[in-house]
Amino acid sequence: MSVLTNEKECDPKYTAFQAYLDPHIPYVPVAEPKHHYTIELHHAIFTEELYDVYQKYEKAVHKKDRDRDQLKRFVCSSPVYDEDNENDRGIKERPAPYNFEKVDDFRSYKDEAIYPGPGSYHYYHRLDGKLIAMGVVDITKRVVNSQYFIYDPEYSFLCMGVVGAIHEIEYMRMI
């Protein structure tokens, strides 16, 4: 998981991510790892990389073909936003029904740090830089809601749904 500084306030005892991890998950490397696993937190935004994983997941697990608009409508166009964030003004002012071609026009694709504030977010789980899973979470001032989780079926042997659930529970405890 990437270690970044907080952009918004959260519980002071967790402002340093490493200070949280050390007592909970001690990590003592014995050698250079064979693979690198990372988790990134992004605003809910459409990417071709995400669409590729979504398409594989839906075909293997639900036996359905899905197009880009279905992905945008289902996991990228959430009405959850941060009323204090100027960049989220587009959600509040956007008329319904949404134009799914432009659903992400006001968002930027970047790692959002540990506590980015209220909104809908995607957790990108990567193995050696390749996107292998994605979890959708909504963060409000009082609730963290786990919405959906998809994974590349080639990596089902890693039990990514369990990994994602454990990560989201730890994230809730942290913030």
Features:
disordered N terminus; alpha+beta; single chain; 4-stranded antiparallel beta sheet; about 180 residues; Aminopeptidase; globular
Strand content: 15-25%
**CATH architectural grouping:** 3-Layer(aba) Sandwich
Q: Give me the number of helical elements.
A: 5
Radius of gyration: 17 Å
Work out the count of structural domains: 1
Largest sheet: 4 strands, antiparallel
Strand order of the largest sheet: 1-2-3-4
- Global shape: globular
What helical percentage do the residues reach? 25-40%
Query: Low-confidence parts, pLDDT < 50 over ≥5 residues?
Result: 1-8
Q: How would you describe what is shown here?
A:
- The protein is of the alpha+beta class and 175 residues long.
- It has a single domain, classed as Aminopeptidase (3-Layer(aba) Sandwich).
- 29% of the residues lie in helices and 19% in strands.
- The protein is built from 5 helices and 4 strands.
- It has a 4-stranded antiparallel β-sheet with strand order 1-2-3-4, with helices on both faces.
- Strand 3 and strand 4 form a beta hairpin.
- The longest helix has 15 residues.
- The N terminus is likely disordered.
Topology of this structure?
Blueprint: H1 17-24, E1 37-43, H2 48-61, H3 68-76, H4 89-93, E2 119-127, E3 130-139, E4 144-151, H5 160-174
Antiparallel strand pairs: 1-2, 2-3, 3-4
